[in-house]
Structures are given as structure tokens and as C-alpha cells.
Write a structure and sequence with these properties.
Layout: E1 2-7, E2 10-13, E3 18-26, E4 33-39, E5 46-52, E6 58-60, E7 68-73, E8 78-83, E9 92-99, E10 116-117, E11 121-126
Parallel strand pairs: 2-11
Antiparallel strand pairs: 1-3, 3-8, 4-5, 4-9, 5-6, 7-8, 9-10, 9-11
């Protein structure tokens, strides 16, 4: 129904920047919110950021607030995650996700609330 493909991961030194992209295809009109999650080795998948397709509402987890910026390009069905001032603790596989659920606001989202997932892109930040 909806396909998500991430790109932009790679190896970067601490303090560097990367921009991740997530291209959505299929029945994208059925999804209301796009989000980024990440999963570090040995840890649970955690919420990073979210954005609605319509409106300017965004949400971030505290650990990335002020460093990461989520944005979208509706014409391209693409969501971005600009990551600045990267830290070694940001190292993880980053996953793009989408949900058909409607939110008046944007709280931190749970992985279980997502309906669609990309395969992930690896971000490695060296010390």
C-alpha cells in the first residue's frame, strides 16, 4: 500500500552533518504522519522526529532537539532529516515510518503505532 525508501546514511565524524531522505510511494494520501526512528546496537527502536504531511506541526525527541530538523517536500513525496552536530551516540540504523492514524498534535510516537516502515539506512558517527 505504501512503500518507504531511506537514503543518505553513511560514516561521519563527530560534529559533522548528514541529511537523510525518505521517499514515499503508493497510497501516500492515506498516511497523515511521517516519522523517523532509530535503533542502535543492543537497544530498542526509539522515536526521533515526526512531521505531518499537512501543517507545520513537528515533534522531536529531547536528545536531538536543536540538532536535527525534519522537513518535507509534498510534491516529491519526500521527508528529510537534517542531522547536524552529530555525536557518537547518534550511531544507529535510521528508519522512516508512516502512520494512517490521525493526531491533533504530535506527541512522541511509538514504533507500534506505525503502519509502514522503510528498510533503514545506517548512520555511523565516529569519535
Amino acid at each position: 500500500q505504501v512503500q518507504l525508501v531511506e537514503s543518505g546514511g553513511g560514516l561521519v565524524q563527530a560534529g559533522g552533518s548528514l541529511r537523510l531522505s525518505c521517499v514515499a510511494s503508493g497510497r501516500t494520501f492515506s498516511t497523515h504522519v511521517m516519522a523517523w526512528f532509530r535503533q542502535a546496537p543492543g537497544k530498542e527502536r526509539e522515536f526521533v522526529a515526526a512531521i505531518k504531511w499537512i501543517g507545520d506541526v513537528t515533534s522531536y525527541t529531547d536528545s536531538v532537539k536543536g540538532r536535527f530538523t525534519i522537513s518535507r517536500d509534498n510534491a516529491k513525496n519526500t521527508v528529510y532529516l537534517q542531522m547536524n552536530a552529530l555525536k557518537p551516540e547518534d550511531t544507529a540504523v535510521y528508519y522512516c515510518a508512516a502512520t494512517t492514524r490521525f493526531y491533533l498534535g504530535l506527541p512522541e510516537l511509538s514504533p507500534g503505532g506505525m503502519d509502514y516502515w522503510g528498510k533503514g539506512t545506517l548512520v555511523t558517527v565516529s569519535a
